[in-house]
Write a structure and sequence with these properties.
With about 80 residues, this protein is mostly helical. It has helices at about 5-20, 25-30, 35-50, 50-80. It is elongated, with a radius of gyration of 15 Å. The mean pLDDT is about 90.
Length: about 80
């Protein structure tokens, strides 16, 4: 694996852990796709830094468990601002 990919994976993981960010938020911040963020955090990071990979996995698991709640809140907010 190339060095810049390893560095990017570590940088993304640190960002997710520090800011409790979602995959989507990290992708937007770093200007890459959600698939790349997920692959960096789930596969590549485990090879580079297993301890950091475990930490970021915890944050991503919490985000995954809460995503249906965020979606419901976004829908509620959307309909609060629309006219009937």
């Amino acid at each position: 694996m190339k060095k810049y990919i390893e560095d990017r994976a570590v940088e993304i993981a640190n960002y997710i852990i520090e800011s409790n960010a979602t995959v989507r938020q990290a992708a937007k911040k770093f200007g890459i796709s959600k698939s790349t963020v997920h692959k960096d955090c789930a596969e590549r990071l485990a090879q580079v830094n297993p301890a950091l990979a475990a930490e970021v996995r915890k944050v991503l698991d919490v985000n995954k468990a809460e995503r249906h709640i965020r979606g419901g809140l976004a829908t509620k907010e959307k309909y609060l601002h629309t006219e009937n």
